[in-house]
Specification:
Length: 243
């Protein structure tokens, strides 16, 4: 089934204890799109600047990605720069330049509006709500968010949570949003808002799924001896889940 994704597409500069790269493909929608295209058609909605590499667009076109909803605007593509710590779970943001993303409002093409699966990648809740208001009747809607939106757009985030089926949050984000020390109590609070499922991301330890019907599932991580760059891990996880 086709998957609609709305989120950020960026050019990143990333530094880890083991390597550094500049101007590489980044953004939540990029990672999700690339991974989900292994399963089915992906309908991408995002914005990039005139500096965005054409070879990346060609790559997506040849990998089951529909770009009708990708806005290409004169100006600079969103850029993020960050440095990871040795544990690869924590990082510092060194620089953020919104570029054309600063004026982005998602426009869902008519050909996308019957997409049965919708992934709202990690962007402002107000933009996520704009997407939901343009989708008549998706079969499954999945939401990702982060600490920044809990702190700055909590009310808007709450309204989006009430409109979706599945929520992805880290253990820390659930505690922060629900103000519950217990993850179980926090998840119970979230399910009471109308969600069908809550997925708790545990980073390098895997993930937990809780259902409103009492479903519980634990997915351990696959151990890797060498990890170079964890950027986009949550987005690719979401792609595997929806795909």
């Amino acid at each position: 089934m086709p998957i609609l994704v709305v989120g950020s597409v960026a050019l990143d500069t990333i530094e880890t204890p083991f390597a550094k790269v500049e101007g590489v493909l980044g953004g939540a929608a990029s990672y999700f799109t690339t991974a989900a295209s292994l399963y089915d058609t992906v309908n991408l909605v995002a914005v990039v600047g005139s500096d965005f590499p054409h070879e990346q667009l060609d790559f997506w076109r040849h990998h089951n990605v529909n770009l009708d909803g990708l806005q290409i605007v004169e100006g600079k593509t969103f850029h993020w720069s960050g440095r990871y710590h040795m544990d690869m779970n924590s990082r510092d943001t060194l620089d953020t330049q919104l570029g054309v993303y600063g004026d982005f409002h998602p426009v869902i093409p008519e050909s996308y509006r019957q997409s049965p699966l919708v992934f709202l990648a990690n962007i402002q809740p107000t933009l996520q709500m704009e997407v939901l208001n343009q989708m008549p009747s998706p079969h499954l809607t999945v939401l990702d968010s982060m600490e920044l939106w809990i702190n700055t757009e909590r009310d808007a985030l709450t309204e989006v949570i009430k409109r979706v089926d599945v929520l992805l949050m880290s253990e820390e984000e659930i505690r922060q949003y629900t103000e519950q020390a217990s993850i179980i109590a926090g998840v119970r609070h979230l399910l009471s808002m109308g969600l069908q499922y809550v997925i708790v991301k545990l980073g390098s330890y895997g993930a937990l799924l809780f259902g409103a019907d009492g479903t519980y599932f634990s997915a351990p991580s696959y151990p890797l001896e060498e990890v170079i760059d964890p950027t986009g891990a949550g987005d690719t996880f979401a792609a595997g889940f929806l795909g």
